[in-house]
Amino acid sequence: MHEEIYINRLMDLLGRLLKDQRAEIDAAVDIIANALMNDGVIHLFGTGHSSLIAQEAFMRAGGLLPVNAILDERILLSGGSLNSTINEKQEGLAAEILSGHQVRSTDAGIVISNSGRNAAPVEMALEMKKAGIRVIAITSIVHSESVASAAPGGKKLMDVADVVLDNYAPYGDAVVRIPELDSAMGAASTVTGAALINSIFILAAEKMLSKGSRPLALPSGNMADADYTRIQAAMAELAGRIKYI
Protein backbone atom coordinates (compact mmCIF):
# COMPACT_ATOMS: atom_id res chain seq x y z
CA MET A 1 0.00 0.00 0.00
CA HIS A 2 2.65 2.52 1.01
CA GLU A 3 4.68 1.82 -2.12
CA GLU A 4 1.65 2.85 -4.18
CA ILE A 5 1.36 6.03 -2.15
CA TYR A 6 5.01 6.73 -2.94
CA ILE A 7 4.59 6.27 -6.70
CA ASN A 8 1.39 8.33 -6.74
CA ARG A 9 3.04 11.18 -4.84
CA LEU A 10 5.97 11.14 -7.22
CA MET A 11 3.57 11.31 -10.15
CA ASP A 12 1.89 14.33 -8.57
CA LEU A 13 5.23 16.08 -8.11
CA LEU A 14 6.41 15.23 -11.62
CA GLY A 15 3.20 16.68 -13.02
CA ARG A 16 3.98 20.01 -11.37
CA LEU A 17 7.60 20.36 -12.49
CA LEU A 18 6.99 22.04 -15.85
CA LYS A 19 3.42 23.25 -15.38
CA ASP A 20 3.87 25.32 -12.23
CA GLN A 21 7.18 27.05 -13.04
CA ARG A 22 7.07 27.66 -16.75
CA ALA A 23 8.77 31.05 -16.65
CA GLU A 24 11.68 29.64 -14.64
CA ILE A 25 11.98 26.63 -16.97
CA ASP A 26 12.07 28.91 -20.01
CA ALA A 27 14.76 31.07 -18.40
CA ALA A 28 16.89 28.01 -17.59
CA VAL A 29 16.48 26.68 -21.13
CA ASP A 30 17.63 30.02 -22.56
CA ILE A 31 20.78 29.91 -20.43
CA ILE A 32 21.65 26.36 -21.49
CA ALA A 33 20.84 26.82 -25.17
CA ASN A 34 22.74 30.11 -25.42
CA ALA A 35 25.80 28.58 -23.75
CA LEU A 36 25.82 25.58 -26.07
CA MET A 37 25.28 27.72 -29.17
CA ASN A 38 28.35 29.74 -28.17
CA ASP A 39 30.59 26.69 -27.75
CA GLY A 40 30.07 26.71 -24.00
CA VAL A 41 30.13 23.85 -21.53
CA ILE A 42 27.42 23.18 -18.93
CA HIS A 43 29.04 22.64 -15.51
CA LEU A 44 27.07 20.57 -12.98
CA PHE A 45 27.69 20.39 -9.22
CA GLY A 46 26.03 18.77 -6.25
CA THR A 47 27.11 17.18 -2.97
CA GLY A 48 26.00 13.88 -1.46
CA HIS A 49 22.86 12.58 -3.10
CA SER A 50 22.49 15.83 -5.06
CA SER A 51 25.65 14.83 -6.94
CA LEU A 52 23.58 12.02 -8.47
CA ILE A 53 21.70 14.62 -10.51
CA ALA A 54 24.99 16.01 -11.81
CA GLN A 55 26.09 12.50 -12.71
CA GLU A 56 22.72 11.72 -14.31
CA ALA A 57 23.30 14.40 -16.93
CA PHE A 58 27.00 13.67 -17.48
CA MET A 59 27.93 11.61 -20.58
CA ARG A 60 24.40 10.21 -20.42
CA ALA A 61 22.62 8.26 -23.12
CA GLY A 62 19.88 10.63 -24.21
CA GLY A 63 21.74 13.60 -22.78
CA LEU A 64 23.75 16.43 -24.28
CA LEU A 65 27.41 17.12 -24.92
CA PRO A 66 29.26 19.15 -23.72
CA VAL A 67 28.44 18.68 -20.04
CA ASN A 68 31.05 18.69 -17.27
CA ALA A 69 30.25 17.07 -13.92
CA ILE A 70 32.26 18.67 -11.13
CA LEU A 71 33.08 15.63 -9.01
CA ASP A 72 35.28 15.49 -5.92
CA GLU A 73 35.56 12.55 -3.53
CA ARG A 74 35.34 14.86 -0.54
CA ILE A 75 31.72 15.70 -1.27
CA LEU A 76 30.62 12.42 -2.90
CA LEU A 77 29.05 9.42 -1.18
CA SER A 78 31.85 7.27 -2.60
CA GLY A 79 34.27 9.22 -0.41
CA GLY A 80 32.24 8.38 2.68
CA SER A 81 28.76 9.60 3.53
CA LEU A 82 29.86 11.17 6.82
CA ASN A 83 32.78 12.91 5.14
CA SER A 84 30.46 14.28 2.48
CA THR A 85 28.08 15.63 5.12
CA ILE A 86 30.95 17.34 6.95
CA ASN A 87 32.72 18.67 3.87
CA GLU A 88 29.65 20.19 2.21
CA LYS A 89 29.58 22.61 5.17
CA GLN A 90 33.25 23.57 4.78
CA GLU A 91 33.91 27.18 3.81
CA GLY A 92 36.25 27.61 0.85
CA LEU A 93 36.04 24.06 -0.46
CA ALA A 94 33.93 24.99 -3.49
CA ALA A 95 36.51 27.47 -4.76
CA GLU A 96 39.23 24.85 -4.37
CA ILE A 97 37.19 22.27 -6.27
CA LEU A 98 36.23 24.63 -9.08
CA SER A 99 39.85 25.71 -9.55
CA GLY A 100 40.50 22.24 -10.96
CA HIS A 101 38.08 22.84 -13.83
CA GLN A 102 38.31 25.08 -16.87
CA VAL A 103 35.47 27.62 -16.89
CA ARG A 104 34.93 30.12 -19.69
CA SER A 105 32.57 33.08 -19.84
CA THR A 106 30.51 31.32 -22.53
CA ASP A 107 29.73 28.42 -20.17
CA ALA A 108 26.78 27.95 -17.80
CA GLY A 109 26.40 26.29 -14.41
CA ILE A 110 23.79 24.13 -12.70
CA VAL A 111 24.10 23.66 -8.94
CA ILE A 112 21.91 21.07 -7.24
CA SER A 113 21.09 21.06 -3.53
CA ASN A 114 17.83 19.92 -2.00
CA SER A 115 18.15 22.02 1.16
CA GLY A 116 20.20 24.76 -0.48
CA ARG A 117 21.66 25.70 2.88
CA ASN A 118 25.23 24.43 3.00
CA ALA A 119 28.46 26.23 2.16
CA ALA A 120 29.63 24.09 -0.77
CA PRO A 121 26.64 24.56 -3.11
CA VAL A 122 26.12 28.21 -2.16
CA GLU A 123 29.79 29.05 -2.64
CA MET A 124 29.98 27.01 -5.85
CA ALA A 125 27.20 29.12 -7.34
CA LEU A 126 28.99 32.29 -6.26
CA GLU A 127 32.34 31.08 -7.63
CA MET A 128 30.72 30.22 -10.95
CA LYS A 129 29.23 33.70 -11.11
CA LYS A 130 32.64 35.20 -10.32
CA ALA A 131 33.91 33.32 -13.37
CA GLY A 132 31.33 35.19 -15.42
CA ILE A 133 28.76 32.45 -16.03
CA ARG A 134 25.06 32.28 -15.25
CA VAL A 135 23.90 29.75 -12.69
CA ILE A 136 20.75 27.64 -12.48
CA ALA A 137 19.78 26.16 -9.10
CA ILE A 138 17.79 22.97 -8.62
CA THR A 139 16.52 22.94 -5.05
CA SER A 140 13.50 22.38 -2.82
CA ILE A 141 12.13 25.83 -2.11
CA VAL A 142 9.90 24.63 0.73
CA HIS A 143 12.81 22.86 2.42
CA SER A 144 15.16 25.79 1.91
CA GLU A 145 12.61 28.20 3.35
CA SER A 146 12.21 25.94 6.40
CA VAL A 147 15.87 25.97 7.52
CA ALA A 148 18.53 28.52 8.37
CA SER A 149 21.53 28.95 6.10
CA ALA A 150 24.68 27.10 7.15
CA ALA A 151 26.79 29.03 4.64
CA PRO A 152 28.99 32.04 5.39
CA GLY A 153 27.05 35.23 4.85
CA GLY A 154 23.72 33.58 5.61
CA LYS A 155 22.77 33.03 1.97
CA LYS A 156 21.05 29.99 0.50
CA LEU A 157 21.42 28.61 -3.00
CA MET A 158 18.10 30.07 -4.09
CA ASP A 159 19.33 33.52 -3.00
CA VAL A 160 22.41 33.53 -5.23
CA ALA A 161 21.41 31.66 -8.42
CA ASP A 162 20.26 33.48 -11.55
CA VAL A 163 17.38 31.04 -12.07
CA VAL A 164 15.82 28.79 -9.42
CA LEU A 165 14.07 25.55 -10.38
CA ASP A 166 11.98 23.93 -7.67
CA ASN A 167 12.19 20.14 -7.44
CA TYR A 168 9.01 20.23 -5.30
CA ALA A 169 10.42 17.78 -2.75
CA PRO A 170 8.84 18.37 0.67
CA TYR A 171 10.68 19.44 3.80
CA GLY A 172 12.83 16.44 4.71
CA ASP A 173 12.58 15.06 1.14
CA ALA A 174 10.64 11.88 2.04
CA VAL A 175 6.98 11.69 0.97
CA VAL A 176 5.53 8.60 2.68
CA ARG A 177 4.58 8.50 6.34
CA ILE A 178 4.30 5.05 7.93
CA PRO A 179 2.70 5.48 11.37
CA GLU A 180 4.95 2.97 13.14
CA LEU A 181 8.16 4.71 12.01
CA ASP A 182 9.72 7.85 13.44
CA SER A 183 10.72 9.26 10.05
CA ALA A 184 9.04 9.40 6.66
CA MET A 185 10.33 7.22 3.82
CA GLY A 186 10.68 7.50 0.05
CA ALA A 187 12.83 10.45 -1.04
CA ALA A 188 11.55 12.55 -3.93
CA SER A 189 14.39 14.89 -4.88
CA THR A 190 16.47 12.42 -6.91
CA VAL A 191 13.49 11.48 -9.07
CA THR A 192 12.21 15.00 -9.61
CA GLY A 193 15.72 16.42 -10.00
CA ALA A 194 16.59 13.91 -12.72
CA ALA A 195 13.30 14.64 -14.48
CA LEU A 196 13.97 18.37 -14.30
CA ILE A 197 17.47 18.26 -15.71
CA ASN A 198 16.52 15.90 -18.54
CA SER A 199 13.49 18.05 -19.38
CA ILE A 200 15.44 21.29 -19.60
CA PHE A 201 18.10 19.62 -21.75
CA ILE A 202 15.41 18.35 -24.15
CA LEU A 203 13.88 21.82 -24.30
CA ALA A 204 17.31 23.39 -24.85
CA ALA A 205 17.93 21.02 -27.76
CA GLU A 206 14.61 22.02 -29.30
CA LYS A 207 15.43 25.70 -28.86
CA MET A 208 18.81 25.24 -30.51
CA LEU A 209 17.24 23.47 -33.47
CA SER A 210 14.71 26.30 -33.84
CA LYS A 211 17.65 28.69 -34.20
CA GLY A 212 19.44 26.55 -36.76
CA SER A 213 21.95 25.01 -34.36
CA ARG A 214 22.27 21.24 -34.10
CA PRO A 215 22.99 20.05 -30.54
CA LEU A 216 25.15 17.05 -29.72
CA ALA A 217 22.75 14.43 -28.35
CA LEU A 218 24.47 11.38 -26.91
CA PRO A 219 23.46 7.87 -28.02
CA SER A 220 23.95 4.91 -25.73
CA GLY A 221 27.45 3.47 -25.81
CA ASN A 222 25.89 0.02 -26.02
CA MET A 223 24.02 0.30 -29.32
CA ALA A 224 25.34 -1.71 -32.25
CA ASP A 225 23.87 0.63 -34.87
CA ALA A 226 24.73 4.05 -33.39
CA ASP A 227 27.01 6.49 -35.23
CA TYR A 228 29.57 7.89 -32.80
CA THR A 229 31.68 9.77 -35.38
CA ARG A 230 30.47 13.28 -34.52
CA ILE A 231 30.48 12.54 -30.78
CA GLN A 232 34.03 11.18 -30.82
CA ALA A 233 35.30 14.20 -32.73
CA ALA A 234 33.62 16.56 -30.27
CA MET A 235 34.97 14.65 -27.27
CA ALA A 236 38.50 14.93 -28.64
CA GLU A 237 38.11 18.71 -28.91
CA LEU A 238 36.60 18.98 -25.42
CA ALA A 239 39.14 16.82 -23.59
CA GLY A 240 40.67 19.79 -21.77
CA ARG A 241 37.32 21.31 -20.80
CA ILE A 242 35.56 18.21 -19.47
CA LYS A 243 37.70 16.84 -16.67
CA TYR A 244 36.33 13.31 -16.49
CA ILE A 245 35.67 12.75 -20.18
CATH topology: Rossmann fold
Poorly predicted tracts of residues: none
| Integer-rounded radius of gyration | 18 Å
Element order: H for helix, E for strand: HHEHEEHHEHEHHEEEHEH
CATH homologous superfamily identity = Glucose-6-phosphate isomerase like protein, domain 1
Q: What integer is the average pLDDT? A: 96
Number of helices: 10
Structural class: alpha/beta
Strand order in the sheet with the most strands: 3-1-4-5-6
Just give the CATH class: Alpha Beta
Organism: Abyssobacteria bacterium (strain SURF_5)
GO molecular function: carbohydrate derivative binding; isomerase activity
Pfam families: SIS_2
Protein name: Sugar isomerase domain-containing protein
Give the arrangement of secondary structure elements.
Elements: H1 2-19, H2 22-37, E1 42-46, H3 51-56, E2 64-65, E3 67-69, H4 81-87, H5 93-98, E4 108-112, H6 119-130, E5 134-139, H7 141-145, H8 157-160, E6 163-166, E7 174-176, E8 185-187, H9 189-210, E9 216-217, H10 229-238
Parallel strand pairs: 1-3, 1-4, 4-5, 5-6
Antiparallel strand pairs: 2-9, 7-8
Helix pairs in contact: 1-9, 2-9
GO molecular function: carbohydrate derivative binding; isomerase activity
Protein name: Sugar isomerase domain-containing protein
Domain SIS: 32-213
Descriptive account of the structure:
With 245 residues, the chain is of the alpha/beta class. It has a single domain, classed as Glucose-6-phosphate isomerase like protein, domain 1 (Rossmann fold). It contains 10 helices and 9 strands. The protein has helices at residues 2-19, 22-37, 51-56, 81-87, 93-98, 119-130, 141-145, 157-160, 189-210, 229-238, and strands at 42-46, 64-65, 67-69, 108-112, 134-139, 163-166, 174-176, 185-187, 216-217. The protein has a 5-stranded parallel beta sheet, sandwiched between helices. It has a two-stranded antiparallel ribbon with strand order 2-9. A two-stranded antiparallel ribbon has the order 7-8. It is globular, with a radius of gyration of 18 Å. The termini are far apart. The model has no long low-confidence stretch (mean pLDDT 96). This is Sugar isomerase domain-containing protein. Pfam families: SIS_2. Residues 32-213 form the SIS domain. One of its GO terms (molecular function) is isomerase activity. Keywords: Isomerase.
